[in-house]
Write a structure and sequence with these properties.
Blueprint lengths: L13 H4 L12 E2 L11 H22 L20 E4 L26 E5 L1 H5 L5 E5 L6 H14 L3 E6 L11 H7 L7 H13 L4 E6 L14 E2 L7 H9 L8 E6 L1 H5 L9 E5 L4 H11 L2 H10 L2 H5 L3 H11 L12 H11 L12 H17 L5 E2 H6 L4 H4 L18 E2 L3 E4 L2 H15 L2 H12 L5 H12 L8 H33 L13 H15 L2 H8 L5 E3 L9 H9 L5 E5 L7 H11 L7 E5 L10 H7 L3 E6 L4 E2 L5 E2 L3 H11 L7 E3 L5 E3 L3
Parallel strand pairs: 1-7, 4-8, 4-9, 5-6, 6-8, 13-14, 14-15, 15-16, 16-19
Antiparallel strand pairs: 2-3, 2-9, 10-12, 11-12, 17-18, 19-20
């Protein structure tokens, strides 16, 4: 971040700073060195200036809060969409990775055991506490969310000032008035700033201060700063610390947004009273946002060919990349229908960036980033330091400016590949995982690769990396790759099939124990084979290699209970394997998998192509089906042989689960009457349908 200055900084001199006392007990000392006092203002001047300031703030919110996607222009008004919001027990032990360590489960899993309650946007506007933090992963929309929050507070007649940490990394000391007013809204008179600041001090209960992106501050707040007065001219970190301590504007509402790790480093006296975690967009909001930038044809195409991409779209950054890579693509960017192909496409399109400043080629830069990413993932961290980058031959001043700019028709968003100054984060953890996998595939010697696969790759730590490795290696065309890659593909295939054999044995042992009641249906064993089995299916699906899927299908269990819940990213791999399954299935249990309409349609489409009677019993109760899914249910009737349980599988208009209605029951009965089958369909607890032939 370049050093920023304004005309208001001319009064700051070294002489003023030299008046600072030596601080021995920073907690109890008030620093009184100040700039010359300003002339006082009348109540009327203060009121008029405050009204003018509120208008400036609202104009800023509307300008900065406008969502723009890279490479595509909006074709309609951008809808207001909001991520899920949960109040969490943030400062309990092991809430988040304190040391910024790598977690393969991803940011949305960090708080699952710490949630106190789910809240809505309005709850934040009614907040009674004086200091709150909002934490979320990169690319989840923290800044847009905070700007909309700021605008909403302004409509409630509260003065709301929104300041981005990345725009306030000033190296020179300054006063609180300069930080919040003069540097934010330059070019106004001394009288205006004086009147506004005076009103703020007298009416701090009407103020909301939003400091956005603490993780992008180029200074540390880990040490306790001295207490200072309103006119003190000090480093920015001391101003921020005193805001957190409520030494300034004690009755105001202070909101800080950040990636999770940064807020943990605040000393206890300066910690927020309440912390909220932002999650993903709902599928409904995801579709609204998607359709504001792309046609419904693209939504349907992605849904039909790679529904796991819709799951990724729930993160706004991923939505941006997916739309960009599918809209007016560059020549020869390939098919971005899997996460592996998507990230390969994004990396390739960095080559076309107008802001590309790295002195070497993109391939050379990618190789260096792969080495860095692998080392970070191996050692369990998600940050890179200045020294690590330079040791690998990467100048942070050039890499910091790389943006993913894909065929921009309007003003682009600068989505930086790396953030920060002395610490660097990949713009999304999945970038680190994809680059790590790329190193394993393209940079690791064959002998080292074999050892890595045998000893490490199938451990939980490498879960996401493993999927990318499978995607990169299994998705290769044999005629177009080197001998080393062919050898790696052969090694990976061998060990993947071995893992499937091992996990299948554990899985069937668990099923047998459940059958004889040694393990309860709701009991979670320490080693859960169901999750591992479906993760391996996801690895096979990522590669889209039919020969591997056919071999994997040989290890398809005859009794199959899907994970609860069945996440979107697991559905494609499961379907890919099931397409190649030829054995009879005694039981296929989709009970309480919480499948949405799209996921169920994808699974049902595969089942409809199976042999008549290939499935003995099937359960689909406890899912989130829509009326349109009745055709999918009807398609199952020829394949399921003995019993289909489906009560409570639909979601009504009120959001509650419901049984099939009379029209749906009639359609099922009509289809049963046209086929010869012994199938019994349980549509609710009291109604059973069967063929009348």
């Amino acid at each position: 971040m370049a050093e920023q200055s304004t005309s208001s900084n001319v009064n700051i001199t070294d002489a003023v700073l030299n008046q600072s006392p030596v601080i021995k007990d920073a907690e109890n000392v008030t620093i009184n060195y100040t700039q010359p006092p300003s002339t006082s203002s009348s109540d009327e001047d203060e009121w008029n200036s405050m009204i003018k300031l509120m208008k400036l703030c609202i104009k800023y919110f509307e300008k900065e809060g406008t969502l723009r996607l890279q490479g595509v222009s909006a074709k309609e008004k951008i809808p207001e969409v909001h991520p899920a919001i949960h109040e969490i027990n943030y400062y309990e032990k092991d809430t988040v990775p304190v040391d910024e360590r790598y977690d393969p489960e991803g940011p949305n899993e960090l708080f699952k055991n710490k949630i106190k309650r789910e809240v809505c946007f309005q709850d934040l506007l009614d907040e009674k506490d004086k200091f709150i933090s909002i934490v979320a992963s990169a690319g989840s929309g923290k800044t847009v969310f905070s700007l909309r929050l700021a605008k909403a507070f302004s409509l409630l007649q509260r003065l709301c000032i929104h300041l981005k940490f990345m725009d306030a990394n000033y190296k020179q000391p300054l006063t609180l008035r300069q930080l919040l007013l003069e540097n934010m809204f330059p070019g106004h008179s001394e009288e205006f700033y004086t009147a506004c600041f005076s009103w703020m001090q007298k009416n701090d209960d009407k103020i909301v201060l939003i400091l956005d992106g603490l993780d992008q501050a180029q200074y540390s707040l880990e040490k306790i700063s001295p207490k200072i007065n309103y006119n003190a001219c000090v480093p920015v970190k001391d101003l921020v610390f005193n805001l957190c301590r409520k030494h300034f504007f004690p009755n105001s509402l202070l909101i800080i947004t950040s990636r999770p790790h940064a807020v943990l480093y605040l000393p206890e006296p300066a910690r927020p009273q309440v912390t909220y975690a932002l999650g993903d967009l709902s599928l409904e909001d995801t579709k609204k946002l998607f359709l504001a930038f792309a046609d419904e044809d693209l939504w349907r195409k992605i849904n039909a060919t790679s529904s796991q991409m819709l799951s990724m779209c729930r993160n706004p950054l991923m939505l941006q990349m997916i739309i960009s890579t599918n809209t007016d693509p560059s020549e020869d960017i390939g098919d971005a229908s899997t996460p592996t192909r998507l990230f390969a496409t994004v990396m390739k399109n960095l080559t076309y960036s107008h802001n590309f400043q790295f002195p070497e080629t993109m391939d050379e830069l990618a190789r260096k980033l792969q080495v860095l990413a692998f080392a970070a993932t191996k050692h369990g961290k998600v940050v890179l330091t200045d020294k690590e980058l330079r040791d690998e031959g990467v100048d942070p001043t050039t890499i910091h400016d790389i943006v993913v700019q894909l065929h921009c028709h309007r003003r682009p968003i600068n989505s930086r590949l790396l953030e920060g100054n002395t610490k660097f984060f990949f713009c999304h953890q999945t970038f680190q995982e994809h680059l790590t996998a790329s190193y394993v595939v393209y940079g690791m010697p064959v002998e080292e690769f074999q050892d890595f696969v045998e000893t490490s790759l199938f451990q939980k730590h490498w879960t996401v990396v493993r999927r990318f490795v499978c995607g990169l290696l299994f998705d290769l065309e044999s005629k177009a790759v080197s001998g080393d890659l062919q050898m790696k593909k052969k090694i990976l295939k061998k060990h993947l099939i071995q893992q499937l054999q091992i996990i299948l044995e554990k899985y069937m042992d668990r099923i047998e124990k459940q059958r004889i009641h040694l393990v309860g249906d709701d009991e979670e064993p320490t080693d859960e084979p169901t999750d591992k089995l479906f993760d391996l299916y996801a690895c096979v699906g990522e590669g889209k290699d039919s020969s591997i899927a056919t071999k994997a299908a040989e290890h398809f269990p005859t009794t199959l209970l899907l994970p609860m819940p069945m996440t979107l990213n697991l559905v494609p791999g499961f379907c890919f394997i099931m397409k190649h399954a030829t054995k009879q299935l005694d039981i296929l249990n989709l009970r309480y998998c919480f499948l949405d309409a799209n996921s169920f349609h994808e699974i049902a489409s595969v089942i409809k192509e199976m042999k008549p009677g290939q499935i003995g019993r099937m359960e689909i109760l406890g899912n989130n089906l829509q009326p349109s899914n009745i055709d999918d249910v009807i398609g199952l009737l020829r394949v399921v042989r003995d019993q289909l349980g489906m009560y409570g599988c639909f979601v009504g208009d009120d959001g509650w689960r419901r049984d099939a209605n009379q029209d749906e029951i009639n359609k099922i009965q009509s289809t049963l009457n046209k086929i010869e089958t012994r199938l019994k369909v349980y549509v609710d607890l009291d109604t059973m349908l069967r063929s009348q032939k």
